Amino acid sequence: MNDLVFGAINGLAGESPALDAVMRFAAGPLIYVLFVVGAAVTVLAMRGRNRVENLWLAGQVAAALALGFAINRVLRWMDLSQRPFQTRPVHQLMAHAPGTSLPSNHATAALTVVLVVGLFASAAWGLALAVPALLIAVSRVFVGVHWPADILVGGLVGLVAVFVVRWGAGKLRERYANSSDSSDDQSPPGKGPDQDATVVLPRVS
């Protein structure tokens, strides 16, 4: 099935110079455009939030990307799949070094950006960025450097990374809030700022 889908998509390469040019751009520089637009949307969303919220947001973005690429590194170390051009005839439109192809870092990064923007900044922009992210994913197969399975696994890694980080961040905030409430409840009794602090001296006769 993997080979069949690859053949259907990659078989379109070389049929149209215009389509080839679009797919080369999508398979290469478009990921950087996606990052820039995603970062711009996220920064604009930060303007309406306080410093603590922005720190949580930036931390989750960095953690999701780091976790996704860490998982990819482990999977690539397992050497589960070679590049298509190493195992079969392909229409290769982009030069690429041979090696392990599963999972696709491009697919992981693209889906992570889409989910981060959609969940933390703007749902509308998240949906809009899903279009170029999908184009990036398909183009990596079109130009002959990835199998469809590489794309699916890469996207799944991005999905898992974002939701694990989001879940973990929620647990941390919940624990922090509970510990703050507990410390307030356990503080020694004393006069608060609204209580009468007048000292009554004994009367000397």
TrEMBL record:
Task: State which residue ranges cross the membrane.
Answer: 25-46, 109-137, 149-169
Q: Which SMART domains match?
A: acidPPc
Annotated region (Disordered), positions in chain: 175-205
Domain of life where this protein originates? Bacteria
Task: Give residue spans, biased composition: Low complexity.
Answer: 179-189
Alphabetized, the UniProt keywords read: Membrane, Transmembrane, Transmembrane helix
Query: Per the record's keyword annotation, is Transmembrane included, yes or no?
Result: yes
Any Pfam family the entry gives: PAP2
Q: Which InterPro entries match?
A: PAP2/HPO (IPR000326), PAP2/HPO_sf (IPR036938)
**Domain Phosphatidic acid phosphatase type 2/haloperoxidase intervals:** 57-166
PANTHER family registered for this protein in UniProt: AT30094P, SPHINGOSINE-1-PHOSPHATE PHOSPHOHYDROLASE
Q: What is this protein called?
A: Undecaprenyl-diphosphatase
Task: Give the organism, scientific name.
Answer: Longimycelium tulufanense
Organism lineage reads as: Bacteria, Bacillati, Actinomycetota, Actinomycetes, Pseudonocardiales
